[in-house]
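re: that chain from earlier
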Amino acid sequence: MRSVLALAALLAPALALAQSGRDCHLPGTEEALRCHRLAVPLDHNTPGATLSLHVVVAPALRESARRDPLFLLAGGPGEAGSDLVPLLNTTFRKVRATRDIVLIDQRGTGLSGKLDCKPGKNVETATEDELLAETRNCIKGLNKRFNLYTTEQAARDIEFVRSSLGYGRINLWGGSYGSRLAQAYARLNPGSVRAMVLDGVAAPDQVVPAGARDAQAALDALFKQCADDTVCATAFPNLRREFDALAARLARSPATLNLPDPRTAEASKVEMTSMRFLGTVHNILYSQADSRRLPFLIHSAYQDRWQPFIARSNISRDFASDSGPAMPLHLAVVCAEDFPRLTPQLLEEDTRGSFLGAPQIMRIGKMCETMSVPAVPYKEPSMIEAPVLLMSGALDPVTPPRRAESARRYMKNAQHLVVKNGGHIVSPLGCMPRLMRSFLDQPGVALKAECLSEIPAPTFQLNSAGPQP
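^ sequence. v structure.
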């Protein structure tokens, strides 16, 4: 009895904190969640200064909740856990029926001291050089110790949160970069992990900027799908040739376009560079639904009707909202952990035959010079013992199935599901929410996933009216 009382005394502070926090209402849900503020060490290797971490707990919907919560780790790097709140009532509703869901704004994102560089007022008409100079000035003005915003420091934050909230072993869902963070956490804290679900899996040896080969594979697949679709092939019979012609034209010189401003309707000059054109194409390929607009956008631009393409390009540059990824945090991670491993040989192999060339891949290097962070040495990954569910979209332009298979080599008990008609992040699609719940309930049991073949491909957009019915 004395040992039980002693254990209760030790757990009391953590359990009290787990039940504390405050009611909060966040964008994406009407219900009240529980928000916590935790002071974590700024440097887990040298305790002293602290950083305020924002943590959200969405309590299980049923009273008979399991004691192993699901921690959601957002992607980027640069997205905040609270950005995933809208998924609580859709993608993760089946899981949340019986488990708390915990969302952490990773240090440097969201409400955890976001490292932010807000776009300027002329972002849509600025040149690439002007945008680069603006970013560099912002980074210098932040005056932060960017070397303390690594994946390892973020992983140690997760363990601090788990312990502070009084949880035992936890489950992890990691999407895109979040899958890298989840793997890092599992290797640092193997005893704290019950099971993991990784979507859009980043392999341990993956060098993030080197994604030209995967991007080209996704574009080739899209072109083939259009050619195999009678309606799309009829509307855009020369799609690949038109894309190649546009890319070659912009590689020679930017196109100066006179277009109405999307907000004021006033005439303005927009410079369409090769960098912006190819970057927008790559961005569109992330979403399978969005990629089905690409043939129409390419064909319209080829006919010098750039308005639809410009409108889509501006989405990623929109300054109307304060939300969005923390770009300096993205750079803090990638410039320390990835860019130093981008050798000339890897760059040449990756870009060979791809629409993304060295200029697009190396653009991040110009910003890394300003970040001035020390390289994080690559370590051979240790084996992950906890059960893992790997999920991939066959059409993913950045973390396709081959990346998950590479990560799987370092996992003792993993199963891999591939969505034929999926792009980057497939958790919300079809029966996947149910499969995730089944896996978390019984992590050691192989899933029956025939239902994934029933997920249809979105229809192609043929004109300005939008996708086909």
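The longest strand covers residues 33-41.
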